[in-house]
Amino acid sequence: MSRKLAFVLNTVEADPRLTDCGVKKYLNIRLDRDLLTRIHGRFLVRGGRTTEFNLTDFKVGQTVELRSPIYCRSPKICHTCYGNLLRRHRSPYIGLVAAQTIGERGTQLIMRTFHTGGQVRVAERDILEDIRENEELVTISDLRKYLRQTESLLICLRDCTITIDLSNYNIGDNLKIGDENRVWVKGLMGRIKFDSFEFNIVLDYEVTMQAQRLEKLGKAYLILHFTRGNTILEAPLETQELKAQVHYVERLLGGKETFKDVDHLFRKLFKVYSPISNIDIVHLEVLLSNCLRDRAELSRPARLGRRWDPVLMNIKEVIFSSGFAQGLAFENVNKAIQTGLITEEKMAPSVLERVLTGELV
Length: 361
Known about the structure:
Elements: H1 2-9, E1 27-30, H2 33-36, E2 43-46, E3 49-52, E4 63-66, H3 79-82, H4 85-89, H5 94-115, E5 122-123, H6 127-133, H7 140-144, E6 147-150, E7 153-156, E8 160-165, E9 175-177, E10 182-193, E11 198-210, E12 213-217, E13 221-226, E14 231-234, E15 238-239, H8 242-253, H9 262-273, H10 281-291, E16 292-294, E17 297-301, E18 310-312, H11 315-322, H12 324-330, H13 333-342, H14 351-356
Antiparallel strand pairs: 1-4, 2-3, 2-4, 5-15, 6-7, 7-14, 8-10, 8-13, 9-10, 10-11, 11-14, 12-13, 16-17, 16-18
Helix pairs in contact: 1-5, 1-11, 5-8, 5-10, 11-12, 12-13
């Protein structure tokens, strides 16, 4: 995994002179006690103005707009999107710094699993807290007026519907419709609606739903109807196995995980790494800045596309799309040659390619 990260992220560099790319997109994050300690030296947008983060100005529960490498419009990341951490590293090769940092934490996970014998701990999920974590506009007190958790079941206290956008799923793969209005999804992304209240319901694990009535709006939407007092969904017990965390990250980087938006994707990645390390979150943002590719032109990151239309791409594909020489060095010579022949846009050689060709010693 560390080797893959080094290959995929070596093309991400910081611009030594560019202070601000002027991008108008931001990473929205809700602050908790942990995140408050991880954004020192970063830049936020408040009231239309870009300012450096000051711990005394914020408190737990606030949502901030964070300037991020994920959205930076400069080919080489500007100082405002990356933050003052650049002064500490004193290196423009921020992709390799991120690869080393994330890879090291992955090694820590593996070693911890080895020393504990790969033991598995199983716990009941806090479904209401998981919903709140992925929906910034609701509080736990709001949710408890409409929903109740009993063991691993989520029960509605009033009649409601859940609408699922089918464009987020491949039916038969990560969404299956069974008999008696039973629906299984590998990660729920939907919108739940009561008479006087509605909000997004996003859960990052598989759930099974048993609707009283099922309705399809063409091929676009699936609507599940539930009656007051009935079970909406059942969630599996949470397996707190360290090795499972590593496998999750590999699935995420393999482009195999569904996500609602970039804010959601970042939270998923941060949730895996936050319990084991005080890693600066900018390293995770650098990773996502290169894994999210422009749907119209996969050879470029989504942040540099003509319009913002990101797609999560397997990092192996990113490696071959990012350069001819590094593709040759990575694993599949035929794939690298094919990519080199069909890619029209000439990209500047990365630091790894310059080392491989002897230009940089």
